[in-house]
Design a protein that fits this description.
about 35% helix; 6 helices; mainly alpha; two-stranded antiparallel sheet
């Protein structure tokens, strides 16, 4: 069997679909605000600094993508609440991973406020890649594998070769 690589033509990859749903940085800023409890249009405006027309457009995109749901307030039908759906809440680990990456490589220090475990009031652990049994995996523990070979641990590595990745050390590859 030849080397298997992740297809980059976008047909069987979830990443382009996720990026299409999120759109641009403004959608991420709206999602961050929603994860912090913002629900009203005016509050999104003040929390994000986005222009009204862009905010309106991005809220619509997030509603159409099923990330937010729009509901009119019962006491004032002119006002609308935007709430995260389960699909939107499932973006929390991705948002935290991006935040932690920005803290590590941009800020150089943890942001304030710090996200903590409510029970112990201690910071959450860095977002990591976990094996099916919960082990934290390093990049050396990962490889691409054709779906037909799932659960077959003796399969040869199907990731890129050293020749395919100039500049990578041989011990970082299969």
């Amino acid at each position: 069997m030849g080397k298997v690589r992740e297809q980059l033509d976008d047909q069987d990859c979830g990443l382009p679909l996720a990026l299409e749903a999120m759109g641009d940085r403004w959608c991420f800023m709206i999602l961050r605000a929603a994860l912090n409890g913002v629900h009203h249009f005016e509050d999104f405006l003040s929390a994000t600094g986005i222009a009204r027309n862009i905010l309106s457009n991005r809220l619509l995109r997030l509603v159409e993508s099923g990330i937010l749901q729009r509901q009119q307030m019962e006491d004032d039908r002119r006002k609308v609440l935007y709430r995260l759906t389960d699909k939107g809440m499932d973006l929390l680990p991705a948002m935290l991973a991006l935040r932690q990456w920005g803290e590590k490589y941009g800020l150089g220090v943890p942001s304030n406020p710090v996200l903590v475990d409510k029970r112990d009031c201690l910071p959450i652990q860095p977002i990591a890649v976990h094996a099916h049994d919960g082990r934290v995996l390093a990049k050396e523990d990962l490889q691409w594998l054709d779906k037909a070979n799932l659960g077959k641990p003796e399969q040869p590595c199907s990731g890129p070769s050293e020749a395919d990745l100039p500049g990578w050390r041989g011990d970082m590859l299969c």
